[in-house]
Amino acid sequence: MTENQSIHHNPIALHKALDRIWGTKPGWGRLAAVNHNVIGVRFMLTALVFFAIGGVLAMLIRTQLASSQSVFMDAETYGQVFTMHGTIMMFLFAIPFFEGMAIYLLPKLLGTRDLAFPRLGAYGYWCYLFGGMILIGALLAGVAPNSGWFMYTPLSSSVYAPGINSDVWLLGITFVEISALSAAVEIIVTIMKIRAPGMSLDRMPIFAWYMLVVATMMLIGFPPLILGSILLEVERAFDLPFFDPTRGGDPLLWQHLFWLFGHPEVYIIFLPAAGAISTILPVLAGTPLAGYRMIVAAIVSMAFLSFGLWVHHMYTVGIPHVALSFFSAASALVAIPTAIQIFAWLATLAHGRPRFSIPMLHIFGFFFVFVIGGLTGVMLAMVPFDWQAHDTHFVVAHLHYVLVGGFIFPMLAMAYYWVPHLTGKQPVQHLSHAAFWMIFIGFNVTFFFMHLTGLRGMPRRIFEYPPEFGWEVLNFVSSMGSFVMAMGFALVALDFILLFKFGRAFRRNPWKAGTLEWAMPTPPPPYNFASIPRIDNRADLLDPDVIGPHLAAGRGYLGIPRDDRMEVLGVNSVTGEPEQLVLLPRQTFLPFWTAVATGSFFLLMLFKFYWATPVALSAVILCFCLWSRSGPSSFDDDAVPIGHGETVPVHIRAESPPSYLAMVLTLVADATLYISLLFGCLFLWISAPNWPPENVQNPNLWLLILAATTMSLGSLGSRISKKSAHMSLVGNGLAFAGYLISTGLFISIAFYSLAPASVHAATASLFVVFCYVTLHGVVGSIFAAHALWRALRDHDMSVRALDLKIGGLWHDYSAASGFGAVGFCLLLDSLVHGGGL
Amino acid sequence: MRHPLLLVILAFVVWSGTFLLVYATQATGCSVGWHNDEIAFWRSPLRFILIVLVIIGLVAIVGTLAWLRRRNTLTAALETSTFLDDVKTYVAIGAIFSSAFCFAGVFWLTLCPL
Question: Which residue of B has its CA nearest to A295?
Answer without folding.
Answer: B87
